[in-house]
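Bumping my old thread because nobody answered last time. Still need a sequence for this structure:
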């Protein structure tokens, strides 16, 4: 048995084709969706991510602008930039790229973003709406995981999903998404974490396992049952002297061993990652559609 490889690159491409059509309909009404990005410092991973967002915006035809600040920029200056983006009608959605330098309060910045323009879905108001099942910008990685599953033929409906990880960015919001009484969700969810005793006891019960612990090979093949669907959210750098950069990217799962046991599995890279950027674009387009009265 060899698992089906769920390729996020291919699913993301399909979603972007759909977004192009939606953007065109908005432009016919005189509306060009706009995405703003605030980048503080030059963290290589953040710069790479922001570049991908700009490329994706151009691909689907929306306006994008990145505001760059040096790493030592005072918190007050970043807050002023957020205030300008909140008030500027050109931007339907925007985000402040994380992580921020230590002297800037992440919570203060996120809380200052207008909930309606919160492209990342991190604002407490949107977190509350997500839990209640109300329409709002959804956190991009969990939204991407859900889209990957549904579009690959592995709907979580009626399934037991075990989420390994409880971060505010992935684990908690994904659990909230999956338990909603809605088409494409309606799952039974177990959330595990570093405080879970006998982790394999729970992971072996999963119809669908989502690994988001941030630890290379935290989940091994003997921890899942035959025919499990595995979504690996982890992106970890491990030393590799044979690689040009001296390292390679691996997930939280032992991919090579697990692909012989799972029914389907996402690779790292090329799995969940492309979906995260695409869902950011989705949130921006949906925000513009709400403004235009095309979406409730």
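Sorry it took so long. Here it is:
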């Amino acid at each position: 048995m060899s698992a089906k490889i769920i390729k996020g690159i291919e699913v993301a491409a399909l979603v972007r084709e759909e977004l192009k059509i939606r953007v065109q309909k908005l432009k016919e009404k005189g509306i060009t969706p706009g995405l703003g990005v605030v980048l503080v410092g030059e963290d290589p991973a953040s710069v790479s991510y922001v570049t991908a967002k700009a490329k994706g915006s151009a691909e689907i035809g929306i306006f994008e602008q990145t505001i760059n600040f040096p790493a030592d920029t005072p918190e007050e200056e970043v807050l002023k930039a957020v205030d300008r983006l909140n008030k500027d009608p050109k931007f339907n959605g925007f985000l402040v790229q994380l992580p921020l330098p230590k002297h800037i309060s992440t919570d203060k910045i996120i809380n200052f973003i207008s909930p309606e323009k919160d492209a990342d879905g991190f604002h407490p108001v949107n977190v509350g709406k997500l839990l209640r099942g109300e329409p709002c910008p959804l956190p991009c990685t969990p939204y991407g995981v859900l889209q990957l599953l549904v579009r690959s033929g592995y709907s979580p409906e009626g399934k037991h999903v075990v989420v390994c990880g409880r971060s505010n960015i992935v684990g908690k919001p994904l659990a909230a998404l999956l338990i909603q009484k809605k088409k494409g969700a309606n799952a039974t969810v177990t959330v595990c974490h570093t405080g879970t005793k006998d982790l394999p006891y729970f992971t072996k019960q999963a119809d669908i396992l989502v690994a988001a612990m941030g630890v290379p090979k935290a989940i091994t093949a003997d921890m899942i049952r035959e025919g499990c669907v595995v979504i690996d959210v982890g992106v970890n750098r491990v030393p590799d002297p044979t690689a040009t950069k001296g390292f390679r990217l691996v997930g939280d799962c032992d991919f090579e061993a697990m692909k012989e046991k799972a029914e389907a599995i996402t690779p790292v890279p090329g799995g969940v990652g492309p979906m995260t950027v695409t869902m950011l674009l989705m949130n921006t387009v949906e925000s513009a559609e709400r403004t235009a009265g095309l979406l409730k």
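DSSP finds ten helices and eleven strands in the chain. Let me know if any region looks off to you.
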